User: Which sequence fits this backbone?
C-alpha cells in the first residue's frame, strides 16, 4: 500500500468537524452542532498522541431509535481502501466505556450512498478505562470477504460510520481520533526534523515557524509546549503537511518562559525526532502594538499570498489563479502602509507594483474598465456571474483609488518610480467613465459586457459603496461626465434618510445605515474629514453609521449569542448558512454572523469602540478567529461557526483604515492627486470644520478617556466637564457588563458644560464615559447629584 487513507486526523474548525455528520431518529440522540446542527462536535480539551483535537461522540441509545455518526475526510472524497488490510482509530472515554456499550461500525460507499454491513465493535475493542487512549484495529477482510457486501465498491468509500448498537438508555461519551485504513506492514521511516525552527511571542499568542519538510510520507507536524521550564510537555496542535507556520494561543497576561518542540509525523502516526527547544515570552501589548500586529498579519494576505505572476490580490485564500480588481486596489493601499511601516522595503513595494501594473496593461479591459475577476496568469476575464463578464465600474474605481494613491506615494525621481507613475497615469486616463452613462443618462451604470451589453442593468444610484465612482469619474482628465450627474443620478434616488437610530441621525442611506462596508470602501483613499456636500459630512455620517451598527449589536433585538459593546460589526462577509451575505442591522439582514472587518475598518470613525472590538476579537476569540493572515472573515457565536477564509475585500479595509487612523498616510496621498480637489469642488463639496464628529482626527493626539461611577437616583445625575476649546464631546452610560444604556453627543463651547444624565431604570453601579474631540484633553469634573 503506497499511503494510508485518512478519514479524520484533525478538524480545522475548533468547535465542529465540517465533514463529520450526525443523525438521530426515534428517541435516541447524539450530540450535534455547527451551522446546520448536523455536524460532529470537536473536543479540544483532550489530546491524543498527536493532533490538536478529536471528534466527540456523545449519545444515548433508546429502544426503537437510532443514531449515526459519519466520519468523512475533508472535501468529501471517495477513497480507495482496497490496498489496505486494517481499519484503525484511537478512542478515549472520560468516564470509561463498558465493552457492551461500544457502537456499531460500518462504511458508506458510492454510488448511491450504499451502506455496508455493520459490525459490533465490542468484538474487537476492549472495555475502556477512564481517561486512557486505546487504539482499536479491525481487519478489513471482515468486509472484503463477506459475500453479502456485493453492493459496496471499496474503491470509492466515502465515510466510516459509527451507529447505535445496544439500547441501554444510558448517556455515553467517546472521543475518536486518527481514523484511517492502512496496510499492517506499511512502516515508513519517520521524517527528519526541520533544520530551521523558531518561536516569537506576541500579546496572547506565540508564532511558530519552521522550514518546509519533504512531502513523502509526511502527515504533518506535532507541536509540543511546556509552560513550566520543560518539566512537563503538552501537545498543543498538529500542523498540516504543507504548513510552515502555526499560532499557539496562550491567552493574555504574559508568559515569561514558554518552550516549544516540534516532531514531524509520518503517514501511520509515528512521530519523528523532536527539534531542540525554542523559547518565547508573551506580554501585554499596548494599543499601538496591537494595531501594528494586526496590520502586519493582515499585510501578509496581499504580500505573501499575492498572485506570483500578476502580483494582484487573490479573491480569497483558496482562489488559485482567480484575482480580483477591487481587492487589488485595497491591497495596493495595504502595500503602501506596509512599506511605510517597514514590513517590506520601499524598493520591494515598488517592484511589486511595477509587476502589477505591467500585468494590468495586458489584461482584459472594456472601455478602459477592468472586470471584477481575472485570471492572474493570462489576464483573461473570469465571469463574476452569467452576464457579468465585462467591465465592472465599481471594482475599477476601487482599483484606481489604490493606484492613484500609489502614484503620489512613489513621487521620487528614480527611473522606476517615474515609470510606475507613467504606467498608472496611462491606466487611469484610459478609463472611459462617460461611456457608462449608457448614452446621455444622468447616472452611471455598474456593468457592461461585450456579449450581453447592458443586460445587468444596474444603475449606480442611491447611497452605497459607490461614492468613489462618481468622484473619480469627475476627476478623470480624459473622460469625465458632467458634474450634474452626481446630484441628478447618484444622489437622485433613495439617497436621503434623515432619521435617527439609537440617538444617531443618518442624513443619507438606508435604514440603520445598511452593511458597514458602505462606510469603508469609498473612504480608503478619499478623506471626507472637514468636508461636506449638499447632503452630509461623510466623516460624521460614517461615524454615526458605525455607532448605529454597534448600538444595534448591543441592543441585539434578534437575541443572538455573543453580541456586546465589544463584539459587534455587521457587513458583507462569508456566512455559515448561505455562503456569502451582506449582513446589516435589520431583522432580515442579521442572522447572528459578525465580521471583524466591520468594526476594525471603522477605526478612524469609532476609535474607542473599534479598539475594544479588536481586543475582544483577539484576546477573547483569537484562538479560533485570528490566523496567519490576520482575522478570519466572519464568525457566528450562536452556531459555533468560524470562517476558515480570508477575503481580499475584507482584509484590505482593515489594513488601510487602521493606517488612516494611525497616520492618515493613505488619505494624505490620495487627496494629493491634482485631479481630486477640483473634482470635489465640481461635485459641490465645501469645507466643514465643525461637522467631522468626535474621533475623526486620529492624527491630532491621544484620545482621552474618563470613567466615573454613577450614584444616580430616580432623577438621574448631573454631569459636568471642561473642554479647553469649542468642539465635540460625547457621553456614554454603561452598565457593569459594558452594555450601552444611554448616549449623548453634542457640540459644546470651551469651558465648563453639563447635562443631566437620565436614570437608567434599574438600581446598581453604572459607568459614565466621556469622549472628547481628538487632540483635546477633557476633564469630567462632576457626576452625581
Assistant:
Amino acid at each position: 500500500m503506497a499511503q494510508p487513507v485518512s478519514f479524520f486526523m484533525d478538524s480545522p474548525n475548533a468547535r465542529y468537524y465540517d465533514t463529520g455528520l450526525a443523525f438521530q431518529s426515534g428517541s435516541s440522540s447524539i450530540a450535534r452542532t455547527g451551522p446546520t446542527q448536523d455536524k460532529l462536535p470537536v473536543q479540544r480539551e483532550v489530546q491524543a498522541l498527536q493532533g490538536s483535537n478529536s471528534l466527540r461522540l456523545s449519545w444515548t441509545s433508546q429502544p426503537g431509535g437510532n443514531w449515526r455518526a459519519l466520519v468523512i475526510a475533508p472535501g468529501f472524497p471517495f477513497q480507495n481502501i482496497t490496498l489496505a488490510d486494517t481499519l484503525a482509530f484511537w478512542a478515549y472515554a472520560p468516564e470509561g466505556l463498558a465493552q457492551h456499550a461500544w457502537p456499531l461500525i460500518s462504511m458508506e460507499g458510492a454510488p448511491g450512498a450504499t451502506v455496508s454491513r455493520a459490525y459490533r465493535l465490542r468484538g474487537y475493542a476492549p472495555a475502556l478505562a477512564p481517561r486512557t487512549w486505546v487504539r482499536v484495529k479491525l481487519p478489513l477482510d471482515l468486509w472484503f470477504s463477506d459475500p453479502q457486501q456485493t453492493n459496496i465498491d471499496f474503491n470509492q468509500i466515502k465515510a466510516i460510520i459509527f451507529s447505535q448498537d445496544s439500547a441501554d438508555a444510558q448517556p455515553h461519551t467517546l472521543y475518536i481520533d486518527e481514523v484511517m485504513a492502512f496496510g499492517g506492514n506499511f512502516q515508513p521511516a519517520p521524517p527528519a526534523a526541520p533544520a530551521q525552527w523558531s518561536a516569537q511571542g506576541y500579546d496572547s499568542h506565540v508564532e511558530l515557524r519552521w522550514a518546509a519538510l519533504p512531502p513523502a510520507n509526511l502527515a504533518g507536524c506535532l507541536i509540543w509546549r511546556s509552560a513550566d521550564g520543560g518539566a512537563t510537555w503538552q501537545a498543543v496542535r498538529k500542523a498540516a503537511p504543507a504548513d510552515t507556520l502555526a499560532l499557539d494561543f496562550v491567552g493574555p497576561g504574559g508568559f515569561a518562559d514558554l518552550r516549544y518542540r516540534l516532531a514531524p509525523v509520518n503517514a501511520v502516526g509515528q512521530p519523528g525526532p523532536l527539534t531542540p527547544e525554542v523559547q518565547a515570552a508573551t506580554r501585554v501589548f499596548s494599543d499601538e502594538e496591537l494595531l501594528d500586529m494586526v496590520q502586519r498579519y493582515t499585510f501578509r494576505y496581499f504580500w505573501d499570498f499575492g498572485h506570483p505572476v500578476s502580483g494582484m490580490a487573490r479573491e480569497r485564500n483558496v482562489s488559485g489563479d482567480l484575482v480580483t480588481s477591487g481587492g487589488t486596489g485595497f491591497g495596493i493601499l495595504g502595500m503602501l502602509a506596509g512599506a511605510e511601516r517597514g514590513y517590506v522595503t520601499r524598493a520591494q513595494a515598488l517592484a511589486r507594483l511595477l509587476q502589477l501594473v505591467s500585468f494590468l496593461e495586458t489584461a482584459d479591459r472594456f472601455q478602459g474598465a477592468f472586470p471584477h475577476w481575472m485570471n492572474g496568469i493570462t489576464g483573461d476575464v473570469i465571469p463574476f456571474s452569467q452576464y457579468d463578464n465585462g467591465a465592472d465600474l465599481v471594482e475599477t474605481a476601487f482599483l484606481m483609488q489604490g493606484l492613484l494613491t500609489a502614484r503620489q506615494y512613489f513621487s521620487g525621481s528614480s527611473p522606476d518610480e517615474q515609470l510606475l507613475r507613467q504606467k498608472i497615469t496611462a491606466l487611469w486616463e484610459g478609463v472611459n467613465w462617460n461611456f457608462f452613462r449608457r448614452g446621455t443618462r444622468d447616472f452611471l451604470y455598474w456593468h457592461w459586457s461585450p456579449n450581453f451589453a447592458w443586460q445587468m442593468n444596474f444603475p449606480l444610484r442611491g447611497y452605497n459603496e459607490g461614492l468613489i465612482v462618481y468622484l473619480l469619474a469627475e476627476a478623470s482628465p480624459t473622460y469625465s461626465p458632467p458634474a450634474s450627474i452626481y446630484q441628478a443620478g447618484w444622489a437622485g434616488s433613495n439617497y436621503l434618510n434623515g432619521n435617527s437610530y439609537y440617538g444617531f441621525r443618518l442624513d443619507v442611506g438606508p435604514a440603520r445605515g445598511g452593511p458597514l462596508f458602505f462606510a469603508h470602501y469609498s473612504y480608503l483613499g478619499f478623506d471626507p474629514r472637514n468636508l461636506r456636500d449638499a447632503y452630509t459630512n461623510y466623516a460624521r455620517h460614517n461615524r454615526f453609521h458605525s455607532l448605529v451598527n454597534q448600538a444595534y449589536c448591543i441592543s441585539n433585538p434578534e437575541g443572538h449569542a455573543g453580541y456586546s459593546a465589544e463584539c459587534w460589526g455587521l457587513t458583507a462577509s462569508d456566512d455559515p448558512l448561505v455562503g456569502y451575505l451582506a449582513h446589516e442591522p435589520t431583522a432580515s439582514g442579521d442572522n447572528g454572523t459578525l465580521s471583524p472587518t466591520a468594526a476594525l475598518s471603522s477605526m478612524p470613525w469609532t476609535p474607542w469602540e473599534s479598539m475594544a472590538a479588536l481586543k475582544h476579537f483577539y484576546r477573547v476569540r483569537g484562538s479560533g478567529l485570528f490566523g496567519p493572515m490576520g482575522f478570519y472573515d466572519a464568525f457566528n457565536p450562536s452556531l459555533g461557526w468560524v470562517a476558515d477564509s480570508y477575503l481580499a475585500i475584507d482584509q484590505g479595509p482593515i489594513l488601510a483604515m487602521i493606517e488612516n487612523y494611525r497616520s492618515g498616510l493613505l488619505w494624505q496621498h490620495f487627496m494629493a492627486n491634482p485631479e481630486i480637489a477640483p473634482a470635489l469642488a465640481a461635485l459641490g463639496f465645501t469645507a466643514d470644520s465643525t461637522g467631522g464628529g468626535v474621533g475623526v482626527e486620529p492624527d491630532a493626539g491621544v484620545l482621552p478617556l474618563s470613567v466615573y461611577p454613577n450614584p444616580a437616583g430616580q432623577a438621574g445625575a448631573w454631569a459636568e466637564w471642561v473642554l479647553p476649546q469649542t468642539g465635540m464631546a460625547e457621553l456614554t452610560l454603561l452598565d457593569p457588563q459594558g452594555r450601552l444604556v444611554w448616549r449623548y453627543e453634542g457640540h459644546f463651547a470651551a469651558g465648563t458644560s453639563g447635562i443631566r444624565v437620565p436614570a437608567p431604570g434599574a438600581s446598581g453601579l453604572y459607568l459614565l464615559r466621556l469622549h472628547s474631540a481628538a487632540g483635546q484633553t477633557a476633564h469630567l469634573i462632576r457626576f452625581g447629584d
